[in-house]
Hints:
The protein has a domain at about 55-80. The N and C termini lie far apart (about 50 Å). By secondary structure, the protein is mainly α. It has four helices and no strands. The chain has helices at about 5-20, 30-35, 60-65, 75-80.
Amino acid sequence: MKRFLPGLSFFLVLACAACGGGSRSTGNETASATSDAPRPASVAAPTPIESLPKIVAFGDSLTAGLGLSAAESYPTVLQEML
């Protein structure tokens, strides 16, 4: 346990430092000034594309249907049932 704690502490400090949200200066101040400008009112917001919900079959080789034809695999059978 004594050897585990310093390693865990180091990992947590490293993870927190890597996820820091510090600002980085790119040296191109005009680009950041124009990107922060508000949009003109004449630009319409994009309309969302309506689509059917997607179902993900997440599993192992049994889910993938290895050794079966594509028509007999679980994702295909599930899609036909829906």
